[in-house]
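Lab notebook page, bench 4
Experiment: in silico fold of construct C2
Operator: M.H.
Input chain length: 290 residues
Purpose: comparison with the prior construct
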Amino acid sequence: MSQIHIARHGQSLGVFTEEEIKEGIQSRRFVGDDLSWRVGMSEWLPLKETVIAWGLDAVPSVSLAAADEMPLLSEPAWERRADVGFFKAIAQTIGSVLCRPGTTFAKLKVDGGLLRPLFYYLLMSAVTFGAVLCYQMPSVLKNPTLLSSQLEGVSQRTLLLGFGIVWLLSPLFFTGGIFISSFLTHLSLKIIARTKEPFQATFRTMCYAIGSAAITQLVPFIGGVVSAIWGVIIYFIGLKKVHRVSAGRLFFSIFLSVVLFVMFYLAIIVLASLAMGLFAGNIPVTPPTK
């Protein structure tokens, strides 16, 4: 069976199988006035007409003007925080992403912009990171060598100042990390899975998946492990739904992205070492005085 092309507002939404069309109909990803075409057709026709001939489920007749405002495509709730409310949107987003990732990411707009998911990710990451710092602070203040043997003898005031600076600068590191990780993952998806979705799709999925999983870091002792494992699982499910790729291709795409990230990290270390070496070599050495 040939694959089906879907378009809206003169823009291609991609190429889909009949099963993907059925799933899109149920989740209202596709609407009746979306245009459809596949090999053998002489022209593009509304999906509400072609599904009858193809024996698929009926599609609700929705005008193109209303297609962009369909509420069932506005997931997670953070995308609708102006209507839902700030704190309620956070709670609903965490619940839906952690407990119903398949349904949630199937309704995620792949072209909804970068700022909203980035804000959510930074908010969740900074808050949970700050909570973890506060949780660990009493032990470190009592025994600084728990972090590093070089901190022995450092005053508590200096340690508190250090904790504060690390927390204030954490959004910068979180931002850089999420962009780099998303870019490498999307590049891997392009190479292996040949995804047709934009970079936004990968970035938005990663922000909501990792940002929501960050809340589990608040669990004492095992929070970090739970967050890492759960975050990867949710991220995998989200990417599979958003990019509509097989589990095998997605697995190898993520594996390639990890390899690329390690190579990138090692390259940064090598360049930093070379820069430090050159800098040290240019520092004039003052001969000892007699």
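Observations: Confidence is low (pLDDT under 50) at residues 61-73. Residues 4-72 form one domain.
Next step: discuss at group meeting.
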